[in-house]
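Job type: complex structure
Entries:
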Amino acid sequence: MNQSKLLDLLENDARLTSQDLADILNEDKDEVAKEIKKLENEKIICGYHTVINYNKALRDEKVLAYIEVDCIPQRNKGYDKTAALIANYPEVDTMYLLSGDCDFLCLVQGKTMFEVARFVSDKIACVEDVRSTKTLFVLKQYKQSGIVIVDQEKDEQNRLVVTP
Amino acid sequence: MKELSRKVREIKPSGIRKFFDLANTMEGVISLGVGEPDFNTPWHICENAIYSMSQGKTHYTANRGLLELRQEICKFHKNRYNQNYDPETETLVTVGGSEAIDLAFRALLNPGDEVIMLDPNYVAYAPTVGLADGKCVMIQLKEENDFKLLPEDLKKAITNKTKALMINFPSNPTGGVMTYEDYEKLVPIIKESGIYVISDEIYAELSFDQEFASLAQFEEIRDQVIVINGFSKAFAMTGWRLGYILSNKEISSQMTKIHQYIIMSAPTAAQYAGLEALKNGIDDVLVMKNDYLNRRNLLVNRLNRMGLKTNMPHGTFYVFPNIQITGLSSDEFCEKLLEEEKVACVPGTAFGESGEGFIRISYAYSLDHIKEACDRIEHFISSRIK
């Protein structure tokens, strides 16, 4: 089975059933289900999420911030030990090691700016070997996972219903 | 009031029109009836058109189109299809493939000349032949031959009045294709009879499973072949109205005369968009093509499983399922499907008599949309299949 094609399809739409995927890949339904199970067990597939436009969603306030973290790498461990200390906080949504001015870039979520600020100063800044942090609050989001989320006309309105 | 043109009044309204009018007045219709991509034009292509306007490129271009665009067209056709045309004397940029079809017939036909058409075929060909005072001679394509044109059928259809053969592969509405080997068998017949071939290759980039082939690749009949292509389907640029026509020098200069009087030149901003598409757009085409392929597989597998026999189409974004098992005619099937399940398809008969017993389903829609439509079609036919 074409594993990378299967992953491509699921990455775009995790709601596709094994039957849908089997139809698209010209494979057997049970084989596809087995392959997905395998990918889940191997932690190649790590989860299934929904892309939400929080500009529109009516629910509790949510604040996003990118935190740049500068730290001192450790002998034999490099950055990974410090990274694990930060990544384990549930407030940290996504985290990378970067080239350039800062070391880590963390996407942090909180209910209020104050909550995020306190998390940064009380938790991340206090992690051993962290030298400094810089907090960048998100003002507005325009695109998420390849989808432009600022108001756009629905595609269907742009096309005639039946054309030759 | 004085009488209007008899020739124009005699043109029959398109069978697609009826379904458009029906579907358009209903609420909650999900359509599988469109003949254009669901993707918007890739942004870098739009941006180049906008930039051209900001630079004051808002004037006429040469009649044949921007030379730079024609050079890119010829390069693209050389590299991707192994077709060789000269940008200065054999290339003409048109307002969509539609203008190109019109130009070709007008440049070729004298009153009473016969044009061999494949049935089912795209709705615009026959009326355009009529407007050019030609006469259509139909070859019926068959499902069991994957809707290909067979050499024996072509041979039989050629008379001393035949001026041209009109073909369209990959085909709207059947999704059928011709391979190089299929064409090879037609070449001696075309060469010997001396007829012209108008080859509408607008779906060339949407060829699946096998490489696109064209009669223009055969050197011995190269001067008899007229190639029509454009940006609409491959680059999702239907609204830009940009196409082109490649042919030998003599035909090209005759067509340019018509074009120069009725059009002058294709829209300039669209030509700059086309330039960007050819230079930097092929990756976008491949991404869209991959999506079409996924949808095709899902649709064909589902239709076959629910009991509608559907050949695997190797091109375009249409499938052409056989609905005879339901005992309904194409028209009845589509009308009832629209009334009962609010799904709009186009009856095969809109594309010619041979389309009876078939419907055209477009998969230029998202997977979600296609799945929902399949559920409804399945519900519709479940009580009708014995």
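Summary: Chain A has five helices and six strands. The two ends of chain A are 37 Å apart (CA to CA).
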